[in-house]
Amino acid sequence: MRQVVQAAGGGEVRVVDTPIPSIGATEVLVETAATIVSAGTERAVTTLARSGLLAKARARPDLVRRVAEKARADGIGEAVRSVRDRLASELPLGYSGAGRAVRVGSAVEGIRPGDLVVTGGAGWANHAEFQAVPGLLCARVPDGVPEADAAFATIAAIALHGLRLAEVGPGAKVVVVGLGLIGQLAARIALASGCDVAGVDLADLPLTTAAATGVRALRESGDATTAAVREWSRGRGADAVLICAAGRSGDPVMRATEFARDRAQLVVVGDVPLGLARAPFYEKELALRFARSYGPGRYERGYEEWGVDYPAGQVRWTEGRNQEAVLDLLAAGRLSVADLVTHAFPLEQAAAAYDLVATRREPYLAIRFDYPRRAELTEPVEGALSTEGAPPAEGAVPTEGSAPGDARQVGQHTQRVARRVGPPGRRRGDRVGWIGAGNFSGSVLLPAFRAAGFDRFTSVASAGGRSARAFADRHGFQGAATGVDELLDDDDIDVVVIATPHSTHARLAAAALERGRHVWCEKPLALDLAELEMVERAAAVGGGVLMVGLNRRFSPAVVAARRRLAERDGPLSLVYRVAAGPVPAEHWYGDRVEGGRLLGEVCHFVDTCATLAGSRVEAAAVMPGRGGEALLAEDLAVTLRHVDGSLSTIAYSSARPRACRKEMVEALAGRRHLRIDDFRELVVDGGSEWKGVQDKGHRAAAGAFLRMCRGGATDVTAELIASSWATLAAAASLGTGLPQPTGLQQSMEAATSDPAVIDPAGAPRTGTGRVAAVGVPAARTADPDGTPLDGAGLPAAQRGKSEPSV
User: Fold this and answer.
1) The predicted structure's pLDDT at residue 89
2) CB under 8 Å to 258, separation ≥6 — which residues?
3) Spatial CA neighbour of 730 closest among 587, 553, 546, 529
4) Which residue has the higher pLDDT, 420 or 323?
5) Which residues pair with 341 in a beta bridge?
């Protein structure tokens, strides 16, 4: 499909070919009929993207702070790589459109395939031939409303929400400051609601357009305009003023105070700065409010991504119901929008449309993109599958074989890439397929794979499609797959790398392993015991090797420390302190579906403790801090008891003092004392054993994986799975407050008895939550040439040697 994008690092707006996006259970796949350019909002996006780094920093100081924090935590080089990768990404444009529902997630109510719907939401309702949009940001279009008119619904919902905040009714005097597209819509909706409306602007086109609908159109001219508003309102002033202007000046807000009556409502709808003087607000006791986009639910993950609607008795006008209200006004003929369209472009001429927006070489109000209808086809949309049970997120992809009812499909369209059939024989790990196109993939993981020796990157897939194509172009992949099924079924792929949201890891890993692929799965491998069992069974029957991205065990500091600790003659006492730092409230750490910090990050430290002790964990417990859900606690204390009697304590804190490095490990054994300082130095008994640039083992881990793919030792897989068991046991202790056994003895002693083909959709299995039979392929303990490997999968000859930092 084609989509309009703007490179974050600058350049012109482009139309690119991308795979069709996938949908989750709460989403709808829509074939677009029309979208509307929100000139003010989208001009701001493209202007910022084209600006220099200094201008970007001034506009987004919050992002500058995040980069500074990353540099302190992970080093300047890592922060620079992350910024470069982010600037190389592409921004989707658009947020208001209409089209036909092609596929509907199982949790979406009231929409069926074939329905004409309106769509909303930046990042979802893009200027693209297909959109994957949350069900609560879609609304069915009543009969008789043209597609081109319906496409205004989301933009008009912004104006409607601002009017609701003004708390006005029939007969109220409403002034609209700024008669751009949203101002025009606000004025028309206010008129339809029985209000008297005056509009203020500087330009001819907005004024004449507003006047034609019954608005008292006033050209801004200072005191004369104020006097005209006063006369129009019978000397009282306006009951409400909607500030729909956008720009760098705060004057519109202060001008609104002059138009307003005593105790009036001022509602800021447009993007204007505030340079407020206290006196006018105090003297008139004015109320100043800000309209947050389309209404309640906006930017709420529970509402938009997870499909949890608010009861109408509690929140009557959500953003979705505001869309419906606009559609009802259009259907009743009380709101007209067709005359607002001053320019219409086919999608392939998007660059010309945005040039018009940037240069303003001629007046405009609404700019519309039109999309040609596609021929009816009998095959389904490739890649438009459901990811039941996982919130939609960038990089989240579905697997083949989803349970019936996950989505309903009307067979209309297909987009296929010719399937390559590879040669038969053992897979050597030469050809890599990549699932997930996030920032970590491009800035950390992929460079580590290249440095380790992987050099044939075949295909990449992601939920959004657009990100997959951009990732493929940026990083030299041969192409982008139209969906994960195409990638998994491509016989020209030996290795599948999974770098997606945590809730998708187990299902994707099982699907790839069952197909015989070698699999690198980023941590965590699984979020519950049933998922872990599913992956183990897949590993037993597929023939491929499995590596989990618990990379710290491969770092030069840990490898050297493990070698020195192997000389001890008693159990180990280990303390692992982590200053993880705070994250934004909207971060996925706050999403229980993704496992929180415990399952999502502390698993790293559990595995490192097991590696240093040289002994697997037999029991685990965690004490969360107070406040909020236990699984999502930001502060944790984890205790591990190892099989050999060693004890490990992980103190995980969301604090990040400026003078404190992120990770510090101390180990005591007899007369021996070791300290690992943030993977920059290993100190043994007071002397520096190893020191270098921070190295958390990403490259060495990728190198070990390459050797596994080519016949090397695989015993590290069992250790990584054991650490996964230990982390899940720690999570289980949250419900009891008591240490929980890891189930290690049953797992390691039992043989698999049911090598059934894995359901790649990851459907929950019936029976007990913990399964004794574990299907891990027999571990190889040496490379094909007989070179023994240590527990980290490194040749013995390389033990203690530092790897260059990635």
Assistant:
1) 74
2) 226, 280
3) 529
4) 323
5) 366
Beta-carbon count within 10 A of 377 CB: 11
Residue 630 pLDDT exceeds 80: yes
Which two structure tokens, joined as six digits, stand for 360?
């303003």
Could you tell me which residue, 422 or 741, shows the higher pLDDT? 741
pLDDT in tens, 451-471: 999 999 999 998 877 888 889
What is the predicted pLDDT for the residue at 76?
73
* 436 and 128 Cβ atoms separated by less than 8 Å: no
SS3 300: coil
The Cα angle at residue 473 between residues 470 and 478, in degrees rounded to 5: 125
What single letter denotes the amino acid at residue 241?
Answer: V
Q: What is the pLDDT of residue 598?
A: 95
What is the model's pTM?
0.75
Q: Which residue has the tokens 């951009």?
A: 470
User: Is there a contact between 183 and 271 (Cβ–Cβ < 8 Å)?
Assistant: no
The amino acid at 730: A
Q: Mind listing the pLDDT tens digit for each residue in 121-139?
A: 999 999 999 999 999 999 9
Sorted by sequence, the CB contacts under 8 Å of residue 787 that are 6+ apart come out as 795, 796, 797
Q: In the predicted model, is pLDDT for residue 336 greater than 90?
A: yes
Q: Which residues pair with 5 in a beta bridge?
A: 14, 92
Does the CA dihedral 705-706-707-708 come out positive or negative? positive
Cβ-count burial 393-408 (b if 16+ within 10 Å, e if not): bbbbbbbbbbeeebbb
What is the band of 74 on the pLDDT scale with cuts at 50, 70, 90?
Answer: low
Instruction: Look at residues 274, 256, 278, 276 and name the one whose alpha carbon lies nearest to residue 266.
Output: 256
Q: Which amino acid is at 392?
A: P
The helix/strand/coil state of 58 is helix
Q: Residue 421 pLDDT > 80, yes or no?
A: no
Task: State how far the Cα of 762 lies from the Cα of 169, in Å rounded to an integer.
Answer: 53
Please write down the HEC assignment for all residues of 244-264: CCCCCCCHHHHHHHHHEEEEE
Quote the tokens at residue 76: 């300047």
Answer whether 400's CB lies under 8 Å from 415's CB. no
